[in-house]
Amino acid sequence: MIVSPEWTWCASPSRYPRRVEGAQVEDEAASRLRGLLRAQGTIIGVLDLQTVLLRVVEAACELVGAPYGALGVVAPDASGLEQFIHVGMDPDDVARIGHLPEGKGLLGALIEDPRPIRLEDLRDDPRSAGFPEGHPPMRGFIGVPIRVREEVFGNLYLATLDPRGFDAADEELVSSLAATAGNAIQNARLYDTARRRQTWLQASMDTTLQMLTGTPSDMLEMIGRSVRDLSDADIVTVVQPTPDKHTLTVPAAVGVSSEELMSSTYAIENTVSEQVLTSGQPVVMDVTRDQLPGGRRALYLSSVVPVGPVMVLPLVGAATTRGVLVVGRCAGERGSPRRTWRWRPPSPTTPRSRWS
């Protein structure tokens, strides 16, 4: 009669640890799920794109306990990163490094092959290009792509110094967050498109009213001011050919160095404005890194203002192109939120720059 209780008492401990261990695993999984839901909640419903991008990085760092995180926006031609949003690094360290990553080495590997990367020590990976002077040391690494409608928009990067690094569960969590980020980015872009379309419509109505009640110079200045505000540009000029078609003049300029640019004249030959006037097609480029299109040798704006990204857009009349809008942003660090444009041809419902 005594044996049975003793056997029962001895048998219980062998099962009890497994039950405790199973409960701990379930608690950890539940905790990770709650963390994922919290992270998703911080980005869902946000409509400002720059805010969305920053919150994605912050949420990812909190989700897996990473001290460093970044989101790189892939350039339209997939040549590198056009924007780099980062958290965790001391501002003094950022200033000492001097420039943001452009998508080379390990970061570039994720651009070339957009599949998740998880490393115990990124320093040992042959794709790693090392760190610039002043960069804090990093060890464990996770990189996952962020897709918007099956197109890779950018990549989410996380790093840590913890010897334990990241595990497969961390990679799964970050990948899930990246999927949510893709939806949030899409919503923010749709909202921005709708807002800009409404602003364009209002600007078109204001310009039409100015045409009926004001002078031509007032109308051109209003066009320049509207485009500057819509594109967050530093300088906008309206450029027109003179009657002899050999010279260009600037009847309106709004923004940086506008007084110096106003009423200036220069030869039309071999300029980007000449190409746009002739073809009726816009040109989008970065003066600091791109060659002028079509073998052109001159972009007059860059001789007065230290611009980087530039758009040269046709002003379409009833039958011909009457002039061009030259829209520029001052050159800055690659990856700065305001420094680049993603040009998309106007849809049938998008107002064009047009004179009637």
Strands in their spatial order, largest beta sheet: 8-7-6-11-10-9
- Low confidence ranges: 1-12, 333-339, 341-356
Instruction: Briefly note the structural class of the backbone.
Output: alpha+beta
Q: Roughly what fraction of the amino acids lie in strands?
A: 15-25%
> What distance lies between the first and last C-alpha atoms, to the nearest angstrom?
106 Å
Count of DSSP-assigned helices? 9
- CATH architecture of the largest domain, by name, is 2-Layer Sandwich
The CATH superfamily of the largest domain is known as GAF domain
Helix content: 40-55%
Largest sheet composition: 6 strands, antiparallel
Counting structural domains, the number is: 2
Keyword list:
disordered C terminus; 11 strands; disordered N terminus; 2 domains; alpha+beta; 356 residues; five-stranded antiparallel beta sheet; 22% strand; Beta-Lactamase
How would you portray this structure in words?
With 356 residues, the protein is α+β, with helices and mostly antiparallel strands. It folds into 2 domains: 3-189, Beta-Lactamase (2-Layer Sandwich); 214-330, GAF domain (Beta-Lactamase, 2-Layer Sandwich). Helices cover 42% and strands 22% of the residues. It has 9 helices and 11 strands. It has helices at residues 3-43, 49-64, 91-97, 105-112, 168-213, 216-231, 258-261, 272-279, 300-304; strands at residues 68-74, 81-87, 117-119, 140-148, 151-160, 235-241, 247-255, 265-267, 283-286, 307-316, 321-330. Strands 8-7-6-11-10-9 form a 6-stranded antiparallel β-sheet. Helix 2 runs antiparallel to helix 5. The longest helix has 46 residues, at 168-213. It is elongated and about 75 Å long.
